[in-house]
Amino acid sequence: MTEDRSRPLVGEAQSVGSEECAVHEQLVEEVDQATLVGVLLDAVSECLVVIDERGRIAFANPAVEPVFGYEPGELIGERLAELIPDRLRTDFLDGFQQHLRTGERTLEWTEVEFPGLARDGTEVPLSISFREFAIEDRQYFVGVMRDVTDRVQRENELSTERAFVDSVFDALPDVVYAFDRDGQFLRWNDRLTAVTGYSDAEVASMHPLEFVAEEDRDDLTAALVEVFESGGLGTAEADLVTSDGERIPFEFTGAPLTDDDGAVVGLTGVGRDVTERRRREQRLERLNALNAVIRSVDEALIEATTRSEMERTVCERLAAADAYVGAAIGGFDTDREAFEVWAAEGVQVAGFATLLPAGARPLADSPAARALDERAVQVVDPTTAGEPAWLRDADWQGYDRLVVVPVVTDERTFGALGVYAQRPEGVPEREREILGELGRVIGDALQNAVTRELLHADAVTEIELGSTDGGLTFVALSERADCRIELDRVLTFGEDFVFYVTVTGAPVERFLEAAAAEQGVDSVEHLGTNEDRHLFKLNVGTGTMTSVLAEHGARTTAATVEEGQCRLVANLSPDVDVRDLVDALTEAYPTTELKARRETSRTLRTPVAFRQELSADLTEKQRAALQAAYFSGYFEWPSRSNTAAEIADVLDIAPQTFHQHLRIAEQKVFRSLFGDEPSNEAA
Fold this sequence. Notes:
Elements: H1 2-16, H2 18-30, H3 33-43, E1 47-52, E2 57-60, H4 64-68, H5 72-75, H6 86-102, E3 112-117, E4 123-135, E5 138-147, H7 149-171, E6 175-180, E7 185-188, H8 190-196, H9 200-204, H10 217-230, E8 234-241, E9 247-258, E10 264-273, H11 275-303, H12 307-320, E11 326-332, E12 339-345, H13 352-355, H14 367-374, E13 378-380, H15 382-385, H16 388-397, E14 401-408, E15 413-421, H17 429-456, E16 459-467, H18 473-481, E17 484-493, E18 496-504, H19 508-517, E19 521-530, E20 533-540, H20 545-551, E21 555-562, E22 565-572, H21 578-588, E23 593-601, H22 607-617, H23 620-631, H24 644-651, H25 655-674
Antiparallel strand pairs: 1-2, 1-5, 3-4, 4-5, 6-7, 6-10, 8-9, 9-10, 11-12, 11-15, 13-14, 14-15, 16-22, 16-23, 17-18, 17-21, 18-20, 19-20, 21-22
């Protein structure tokens, strides 16, 4: 047996050279075979264990001590099962006995991963291989056991790291993927299958471009080429198409995968759902467009001269905007029994039912009524409106939302603006706020238009009102001071009113005390006295019919209060609803009633006629002083181009004379404008 093992080595040595052959012969002469084998068994790092057919250890090399904690001699005669953990010992022994009986192997014999049991009770990961041999008809088994603790530990660490990476990979809210240059998917996270609806097997068989809409593939391909050719990052937006055909806007970002030589062999990337971002961008675009529309409407309102022109222009500008299909504006009658459409553009409006759905409800419960009652924007969804006619109109005319905007001022309600839009996702709150502001802008503009029409109308409606309501400031003041109050003029400064009045029947001190005690009077000033007539200026914040009249575009022209009785005359444009105005007055002051109503004509002076009358009233010196002051920049503020002394020097008169001519000329101009003669006597 020794000769058989040595022949191949000898032969190999002979084939290599005579020097190597001499070394081998010397070793054979000096060391016998048994000694050589012992040296080799002691030198190997693997545990070598020989067991007999009873499962007892017949030989163990020194390598068993660092692994199991036993010296080799301590193991001789012990069962191999002592080196196996309890939980595995029975299965091992059963398999060993079955092999002895039948020769059938029930366990793997080569490079088996199996734990060993050390002396201190710890388990040692082993890689075990068994070989069977026989001597003199006795069976033996040699086991080669290698401690693989370091390898197992590294594998466990890698496994833990891989599990961590996989967990993070799958926990990411975005789609994560990797594929090679041929488009073969290498890896993807669970988010890809969850979003697309495809199984892992289906994903593995698909090309990345199959996940995006066909019209977006060119852009995505260009981004992929950029990554593969330049090795840089690539980004593209495209609609991801799910297995059931749903389209979801995504942003795809890719980075190169490289090999050890730096060559790009694939791509890894992230796909992010940008649906909400797209919606925000669209909302922002619509808001920007809406702001542009509002600026356009503002400009149009400034240029428009009549109320009807304003209403028509508002509808035209809104209908022309990309954000809306059309617009209509209208209002209720006093009892809300009918709704009249004043202007419409972009939609066909035939009565209230198609402007604002009401169904079987009374108009008082309609979205338009709610918008006016709550002074808040209302949004109507045709799918919840429950009216077939409304649904048919919406489908035919291309809208799916109606935004009802109250057209109001701070106090007065004009009507409702209906804005039609194609907006499946609804109308965001910010857009509602902007449209609400637009409704107030339109309301203010309509209020100004009514006032202008009143001032320039050839025919006006004149109404006479009577009231004994104690809530009226001047009624209460007349009773408190026991006097007669006659209105000379009322001026409006924003929301404040300044009244110039003539008081008779009460001394100045008594009226001042009564006015100071009246809650609605903010301030009072005595301007002068003409015989028994005392002139006062009062700032009154509350408690006047004038404020309600002004909200409806009416102008107070005359008023007297005596012994708790108020009589007031006002002019209003013919298109103002008198009934609506009186209702507003009686709601505020219940004892107020309409005494008379009449249509009157008036002759308006043209600018040419006004200049001719004024020119005839001025003396030559007064006209010269006024013209010199005007054209020399005397009235400019805050810095005058010329002083009074400089202008007087040009006219070759004294400064005092210039001032006298100028003051008289100014008084004549204002008298021509206002038609009243001021008091000349101080208090």
